[in-house]
Specification:
The structure is a single chain. This protein has 205 residues and is of the alpha/beta class. It has one domain: Alpha-Beta Complex (Spore Coat Polysaccharide Biosynthesis Protein SpsA, Chain A), CATH 3.90.550. The protein is 24% helix and 20% strand. The chain has 5 helices and 9 strands. The protein has a 7-stranded mixed sheet with strand order 5-4-1-6-8-7-9, with helices on both faces. Strands 2-3 form a two-stranded antiparallel ribbon. Helix 2 runs antiparallel to helix 4. The chain is globular, with a radius of gyration of 16 Å. The two termini are 24 Å apart.
């Protein structure tokens, strides 16, 4: 895959790869599954680095310390992806930030740039989220504005960890890619479809 940097002339954006999950349904660490010659973690890290000016992984630091990427731990333990979103938006100095789960091998730079362009053209928008259908947003294949941070913190303080519910409380723009398969994720061993190098992923999260 070509990881050549894309144009970030319009505005610098941050990028965060969420890799702190337990991969319990997969039975092994999804981030380390080979994909096109690299662990999926590396594949997605380089993809995000190509479309941003500031990249971090959000995960327990000791888990991926052998990789040469900056890693941030969650600000709150055992709160799922919502805590990772809080960590990302709290850390970033940039208004807009890609937040992507480490289980979508087919995600493309072109689609990420589409999200970015829509975000930069928007006003009073907190999140531009990918979706496979209008009622099926994927908030972990999205670009988030730091304006969402107070609401994220409020949800966490209340013990509400449902990220899709969070989206409904924000000014959210939904975009569906021409080929929704690029949002497919690897959740279970059968999603690998016997071909780890390419993989047929599951389009449901």
């Amino acid at each position: 895959m070509n990881y050549a940097p894309q144009s970030t002339a319009l505005a610098p954006v941050g990028a965060f790869l969420l890799a702190g999950g337990a991969s319990s349904r997969m039975g092994r660490d999804k981030a380390l599954i080979p994909f096109r010659g690299n662990p999926l973690l590396v594949h997605l890290a380089e993809l995000l680095r190509s479309v941003s000016v500031d990249f971090h992984i959000i995960a327990p630091p000791q888990r991926y310390e052998s990789f040469a990427y900056p890693i941030l731990p969650d600000l709150r333990d055992n709160c799922g992806p919502m805590a990772a979103i809080e960590t990302a938006l709290s850390h970033s100095p940039h208004p807009w930030n890609f937040i992507v789960a480490c289980d979508m091998p087919l995600l493309s730079a072109d689609w990420l740039m589409t999200l970015r362009d829509a975000a930069l053209a928007s006003t009073q928008t907190d999140c531009v989220s990918s979706a496979t259908a209008p009622d099926s947003p994927n908030p972990l294949a999205a670009i988030w504005n730091r304006t969402a941070l107070p609401t994220v913190r409020s949800f966490l303080d209340e013990g509400n960890f449902r990220v899709r519910s969070l989206l409904s409380s924000l000014e959210t723009k939904i975009l569906i890619p021409p080929d929704p398969q690029i949002l497919a994720n690897w959740n279970r061993p059968e999603d690998l479809s016997g071909l780890i190098g390419e993989g047929k992923a599951n389009s449901g999260r």
